[in-house]
Write a structure and sequence with these properties.
4 helices; BirA Bifunctional Protein, domain 2; 2 domains; single chain; seven-stranded mixed beta sheet; binds biotin
Length: 251
């Protein structure tokens, strides 16, 4: 990110805890207090990426959003990777699970099941860059909902209220750390290397489409903008997004 402006991080003192809300991301759009964090026991209209709904009925799970002000418009794919890695680190620290990974662009997987997702929304508001970081974590499902066959659960038993609070405080700290790292090129490179080591796509082959052509590539890593690098038979391809086509071989 550039120089000169303000980077206003999340402040755990500005944490609002609700029982019910349509969506914690929408709550922050309506109540734009920079640095605030909102969690809710349930959401009545939780949103996922690509206009999907996010299952938000169980009060065992985490529905979290935070609003930060950035000093300039960053590369959204990089911010997305770094927010994903902050969530992954929190999940590892709090669960001691060894089989967690970050699936590009920013889903968290436990083995081959999705246990968390992020919805990032960046807007210019009163000439400032506002970023809303929405995080949903499946802490515990007694039974995986039948409409979510590829979902998993991070913990093997429900968390106490205290354990949930500790998780949220750790998440705030890890997100703030990564926003600061984004402003430093060397630290960013170290973070990208950590993300590559903990990437779900490592050692996987991927079918994708670019310039109207379907191709098969191997995971190489991420570039400084957070774009995915894939090695094909005779080239290196760089992808910004999973659109228009992206499929992992054998899945
Ligand atoms: C995805 O994987 O599709 C992203 C899911 C993001 C869900 C979280 S839950 C808290 C926040 N509020 C929302 O409405 N969505 C995000």
């Amino acid at each position: 990110m550039g120089q000169g402006g303000d980077l206003i991080l999340l402040d755990p003192k500005n944490w609002i805890q609700l029982n019910e809300v349509s969506s914690t991301n929408d709550y922050l759009k309506e109540n734009r207090v920079i640095s605030s964090v909102v969690t809710s026991k349930i959401q009545t209209r939780g949103r996922g990426r690509k206009n999907h709904l996010w299952n938000s009925e169980s009060c065992e799970n985490l529905y979290f959003s935070g609003l930060v002000e950035l000093d300039s418009i960053p590369s959204l794919p990089l911010v997305s990777l770094f927010c994903g890695s902050a969530v992954l680190k929190t999940c590892i620290q709090q669960s001691q699970e060894k089989s967690l990974s970050l699936k590009w662009p920013n889903d968290i997987y436990k083995e081959n099941k999705k246990i968390a997702g992020l919805l990032l929304e960046m807007e210019i508001y009163n000439e400032k860059v506002h970023l809303i970081v929405g995080v949903g974590v499946n802490f515990f499902f007694e039974k995986i909902p039948s409409d979510l066959p590829s979902a998993g659960t991070l913990f093997l038993k429900p968390l106490s209220e205290l354990e949930k609070k500790i998780f949220v405080l750790q998440l705030i700290e890890n997100l703030n750390k990564n926003f600061l790292i984004l402003t430093d090129k060397n630290l960013s490179q170290n973070e990208i290397s950590w993300i590559e080591k903990n990437s779900y796509l490592k050692d996987k082959k991927i079918y994708f489409k670019t310039d109207e052509k379907y191709m098969l590539g191997e995971f190489l890593g991420y570039d400084e903008n957070g774009f995915l690098k894939l090695k094909t038979q005779d080239s290196i391809q760089v992808l910004m997004d999973t659109d228009p086509y992206f499929r992992i071989e054998d899945e």
